[in-house]
Amino acid sequence: MDGKQKEHYTQRQDTSAVRHRKTCKTNEGAECLSQPSSETSNGANKRIPKRAGHLSSPSRDDHVPVYTLVLVLVLSVCTRFYKITEPPHVCWDETHFGKMGSYYINRTFFFDVHPPLGKMLIGLAGYLTGYDGTFPFIKPGDKYEHHNYWGMRAFCAALGSCLPPFAFLIVLELSHSKPAALIAASLLIFDTGCITLSQYILLDPILMFFIMGSVLCMVRFNTQRLRPFSFSWWFWLLLTGVCLSGSLGVKFVGLFVILLVGINTAFDLWRLLGDLSLSLLDFGKHLLARVFGLIMLPLFLYTTIFAVHFIVLNRSGPGDGFFSSAFQSRLIGNNLHNASMPEYLAYGSVITVKNLRIAGGYLHSHWHLYPEGVGAHQQQVTAYLHKDYNNLWLVKRPDNSDDLTGPPELVRQGDIIRLEHKETTRNLHSHFHEAPLTKKHLQVTGYGINGSGDVNDLWQVEVCGGKKGDPVKVLRSKVRFLHRSTSCVLCSSGKTLPKWGWEQVEVTCSPYVKETPNTQWNIEDHINPKLPNISLSVLKPTFLEVLWESHIVMIRGNSGLKPKDNEMNSKPWHWPINYQGLRFSGVNETEYRVYLLGNPVIWWLNLLSLALFVLMLTVASLAKQRGVKMEGMRKVHCHTLMEGGGMLLLGWLLHYLPFYIMGRILYYHHYFPAMLFSSMLTGITLDIFLQNLHLLFSSSISHHLMRGGQFILLLGFIYSFYLFHPLSYGMRGPLAQDPASSMAGLRWMESWEF
């Protein structure tokens, strides 16, 4: 045979040792050769040599240890379902996601910054277990009383219970080591943080279920390389795509696992391209199969999620104001649904004016004044995201003369108007005072008494894309309001005002007159009994327009999540060191307290294992580069570190590092997807480290050290869980600083707030 074939044959001998390592008797792991059957990618009788650097699929002897897997599953279910109904009140973000589940049951439209799959599944779980969607979920601490909330909690706990078994199977597939898989699973079983996140009505266990499912399916698909286009090959490929769509359908951070699978697929295709025994036609088949399974199928399922979302939520609700007027016309109960109103704007009309920036809000005012030191001490003008009586404005002539008897006069391009606030009778006004937040813009206020004001109340109407004399069309015309005295343009900045502004959106007068959505408005509600009405049904958007708009709203909503006054903003560097947790329930001694904090023994072990992995990987890479001869299990361990460990390290980096560049508010629970990868990497790292102690000690001593190390690890996980389990299952009575507390002496860091 030639040199390339010989290299492939040698690699086949080396990697086959992984499949039969249990039959090898020496400490070094003598090679146990086998001849796996080769299949072609197109069904022909030619052989495909196994590509170097990849583990083969397990043989029949390398079966999944069923009893161990069942034990992992039972322990996981027990730790997640224990005291699942406690406490019987709303905890932390249950107030949001439980309420959204209720909205699905009631078919009421709402807005959230995350895609809808997680909330839909929560609502479905509640519906199937007898919850009627009537509990208000107003604030944490509200008692559930007679409402059937356990089904939604149990659904999240069931998905959270799958995480340790998934970790067991992933690590077993990557390392072919049952101890490594058991270590990884134990880290998740006995972690108080993972338990707490899994026991409440939250998106996190649903998200992590799909992330781990994606990784498991990807790893299983990789083992089918020698059986391309077989049933199992297609099954794991398509199931990977399904899980990817689920990850993205719950939260946008699902993009990180999509990127991980994409990188793995790119390397896989690159190796296939280098396989000279594979024709370009067969390579094209592989490429198209992956495009279908990992791109087209997830996109179809992701789009289907939104189609179901829009079909179910067909009634007007609290989320209407975040979306355009055309979007709202779809919703039953919205004032624009099957509505009719005058087509053209006229003097004497009562209107609402909506900013065209996504989530820009309605032009709004109220009796409250700007505080001292914030521009002029006049009436506040803001943009409000919800329907409200204070959004109504009266269109008046510049001289305040209104002919109540004659025919209505239309407002046209270039006209000068006043806008009088219907409730307070103050005019929309601007002047040379700086805006509250956007300092280069001018302040907009409400000014005057009973509609009388001054020249700073005059605004010129400009129809975007129109010409002089064009009428203003309701809903369809993009309108700008140019201030006559200062030559600035009415603008919704998108910035949220402090509490004195009721956390509404800042409205300014921008000196930058370039056309942008921030300075463009449309007339939404229009009341004028003198004008004939037209039906608005022609304005309903298509599904693709609705899909696009909903994503723009979600993305901008995410970017607008900033820390509020005195709100704690967690830092990404806090997370791996377990610096600070989150209060889920209760504060004082008389309350039922639950505190989200990872088991510190497990989290700090993960951190040390990351450093140990980097050290071991560096040593293995240097040895390989220098041509150090590695045979048997040493070579297998080196391969596992670089391939399996490298993939898990990449997963940890992809799910952790992006948070350093995010501008939104961050919380401790954002780290848990990365923690899953860190725990699996710990399992592989510690197992290989323990198995290679014979490099430092004699074979008999190293064997006892390995068994002792495994026992100490498992004992440490269990005992630390015993110490810190009240964090997850609830604490009553004295706080941690009191010697009588169940957590006395366990507040190892001052930043822990239990």
From TrEMBL:
SMART domains: MIR (SM00472). One of its GO terms (cellular component) is endoplasmic reticulum membrane. It catalyses: a di-trans,poly-cis-dolichyl beta-D-mannosyl phosphate + L-seryl-[protein] = 3-O-(alpha-D-mannosyl)-L-seryl-[protein] + a di-trans,poly-cis-dolichyl phosphate + H(+); a di-trans,poly-cis-dolichyl beta-D-mannosyl phosphate + L-threonyl-[protein] = 3-O-(alpha-D-mannosyl)-L-threonyl-[protein] + a di-trans,poly-cis-dolichyl phosphate + H(+). Residues 34-44 have a biased composition (Polar residues). It comes from the Eukaryota. The keyword Transport does not apply. The chain crosses the membrane at residues 109-130, 150-172, 179-200, 206-222, 229-247, 253-270, 291-312, 601-623, 644-662, 668-690, 711-729. Keywords: Endoplasmic reticulum, Glycosyltransferase, Membrane, Repeat, Transferase, Transmembrane, Transmembrane helix. Residues 1-59 are annotated as: Disordered. Gene3D superfamilies: 2.80.10.50. Pathway: Protein modification; protein glycosylation. It is a multi-pass membrane protein. Residues 342-398, 408-464, 469-526 form the MIR domain. One of its GO terms (molecular function) is dolichyl-phosphate-mannose-protein mannosyltransferase activity. Pfam families: MIR, PMT, PMT_4TMC. Its EC number is 2.4.1.109. It is found in: Endoplasmic reticulum membrane. The keyword Transmembrane helix applies. Residues 1-11 have a biased composition (Basic and acidic residues). Belongs to the glycosyltransferase 39 family. This is Protein O-mannosyl-transferase 2. It comes from Cyprinus carpio carpio. The lineage of its organism: Eukaryota, Metazoa, Chordata, Craniata, Vertebrata.
